[in-house]
Amino acid sequence: MRKTLLLLVPIALLGACTYGITLDDAGKNVRTAWSGDMSSCRDLGKVTVSVMDHVGPMNRNDIKVRDELEVMARNEAAKMHADTIKPLGDPADGSQPWGAYQCGNAQLAPAGRPGAPANPANPASPASAPSGFQTYPVKNN
Q: How far apart are the first and last CA of the chain?
């Protein structure tokens, strides 16, 4: 019984690693542009965010890490009064740089998330999104 309890404590701690990374109300107003020309937008600066990409010797799920990085970047960009973010590079060691922009009503070229298939039958598809942007919320289990 004691050994089982000692094994469950680290598992519970691993599950709590992402607790608290949620999209703020202000962050909900920030779009993510995965590609495209940002010349019609005003560059407000750079945001670099980081999360744990591994716990001890175990690597965390890459998709979950990327989702958390996007959520944190949107939250931080909102503090800069930005309405759009764009990744400036791929995540490395749990850290990722993002550009923060103020685009207002500027129309950016439609672009989907890299690697996401475009499906015209699916209204949530990035290719059919009316604004050309698609975000993927983090699901807290």
A: 27
What's the rounded Cα separation, in Å, for the pair 138 and 77? 17
Q: Is 83 helix (H, G, I), strand (E, B) or coil?
A: coil
Per the CB < 8 A criterion, the answer to whether 104 and 66 are in contact is: no
The span from the CA of 138 to the CA of 2, in Å, is 35
State both tokens at 118.
Answer: 């475009």
Q: CA-CA distance, 28 to 135, in Å (whole number)?
A: 10
Q: What is the pLDDT of residues 22-54, one digit of tens each?
A: 998 999 999 999 888 888 999 999 999 999 988
What is the SS3 assignment for 31?
strand
Residues 6 or more apart whose Cβ sits within 8 Å of residue 61: none
How distant is the alpha carbon of residue 27 from its chain centre?
Answer: 11
Six-digit token string for 51: 């999360």
Residues of the chain with pLDDT under 50: 5, 12, 15-16, 111, 115-130
The answer, as to whether pTM is greater than 0.70, is: no
